[in-house]
Request: fold
Amino acid sequence: MNRPRSLTVLTALALAATGLGVGVAPASGADADATTPVPQVQGPLAVTADSYPFGAADHQLVPQDLSREHYVEEEFLVSGTSNVYSWPQEGPAVVRTPDAPYTTRVLVRRPEKGVRFSGNVVVEMLNPSNLFDLNIGWAVAHRQIIENGDAWVGITAKPISVEALKNFDADRYAALSFANPLPLDDPRNCATVAADSSRTTENGLVWDIYSQVGAWLKSDAPTNPLRYRSSESMVEYAYGFGYSQTGGYLVNYINAVHPLVVESDGEPIYDAYLVAVAGGAFAGAYPMNQCEPAPPATDARRQISDVGVPVMRIMSQSDYLPGIGSRRPDSDAPGDRYRHYEMAGAGHATPDELYFSAAPEDIVQAGRSVPPMSCNEGPRSRFPSAIFFDAALRNLDLWVREGTAPPRAEPILVQDGAPVLDEFGNVQGGLRSPYLDVPTSTWFGTATGASFCFIAGYEVPFDTATLTELYGNEGVYIRAVRASINELVDQRWLTEYDARWLFREATRVDIR
Reply:
C-alpha cells in the first residue's frame, strides 16, 4: 500500500501559507515511524461570541450546557496527506492518486477530567446529506456517551460540508481544503461529478482522514486532547460510527480500507464499528472516489463479514425493506463477530438529528436550507431510536472489553416483500419497546413532503375510546409498561437510565 509516513513538502508549504505551521505540534518520534501517520493538528481553536464551532453544543437547535455534565468541547484543524483510492472489485481498495494534501476540522466532546474518561472514543464521520455537518452520532447516543464517560469525535468528511463551514465563518475555516490532487486537464479528473460535488475538490480523501484521526487519538502526540495530563493517550478503544450516508461510508471503510490498515499497521485503528441505517440498496456503500460509481445494490462489497473486530448494523423501519439485502446471520465467531438489528417503529430521519445539530440561524448563515421538522402527515416521528443506540453502544463496548456477546433479535417480519403488521398496524419482529408492545399509537417509517420526509416517519395516536378499551385506566397501562421495560432491561435491550426515562414518559399518557 502506498501510504505516506509523514507530510509531504507540498503539505508543509501549504500549512505555512495558511499559518497552520505556527503552534502546530508534529507527531512524536514513535508516531512518526507508524505506518498510519499522525496528522498535523492546530487547536483547540479559540471560541468567542462571534466565532464558535458550527454545530457547537451551546449553539444547537436544543442547546446543551456540557459543563453541567463535566464535559468540554474543543475544535481542531487537522492536516495531512491522503491517498485517493479505487475499489474496482471485491477486496481491499487500491491507490488511485497518492499523497493529496487536506485540511479538515474535528469536533471533540470529552470528559473534563481524565479520571472520568472511560477510555472509549466514538469517532463519527459527520453526516453531509443536508449539505452541512449533522452531529447524528452525538444526537442518538449522547446519553450513553456521557453516562459511560466516553469521548465523542466528529470529523467533517466531505467538501460540500467544507463549503458550508466557510460560508458560516470564512476566517475560522479558511484553511479547510479537500482539493482535488488532479488538475482539471488531467483525464483522470472526470468531466462529470455528482450534483453535491465539484471537479476542483475530491470526496475520496475521507478514507485516510478517518484512519489518521483515529491514529491521532490513540497517539502520544502533544496535540491529542485525550492524553489529558498524561504523557500517553488515555484511549483504550476507538469505535467507528456512521449514520445513513456516513454509515455507507463506514461500509466502504470496513471492507476496503480497514484491511489495508491491519496489513500495514499490524492491527486495526478502530476496535469495533456501529453502522447505522445504511445497508443493502439503502445507502449501503458509496463511491471510493468521485469518478467511479458505487458498488451495485447487489454487490458483495455491500455486505459485511470477517472483519476481525465486532460490527453492529442497525436499520430503521424507514429503510429496512430497501436495505433488506444487508441481512445476514449473526455470528460470534472470533473473526466474524456480527449483529444485525432492525428498529421496529423507528424513523430514519429523526427530530434528534436536528435538535442536536446547528441552530437554524447558523444553518442559514452556512448558506443552507433548514430541514423541515414536519411533513404532510404531521411532525417527524418522535419515536426515540436513541434508546436502541444507547443499548447498542453499551453492548458493543461489553463485547470488546469483556467478550460478552450482545443479545440477538429477529428482524422485522416480512412476507411477500411487505411487513407483517399486528392488529394496530405496527410491524412485528425487530427490536421491541413499550411503544409497540404496550402501544398507544401506530408508527409509520415513511411520510410525504419536502426534503427527507420519505424516511422521517410519523405517528397516529389511538383515540380515547381505543385507549380505554385496551387499558381501562392509567394504572393498568403503567403497570404493563413497567413489565415491558423490566424485561427489556433484563435482556440488555435497554439501559437503566433509558428505562427510567421511558417510565416517566408513560406516566404522561392520559387514559380516561
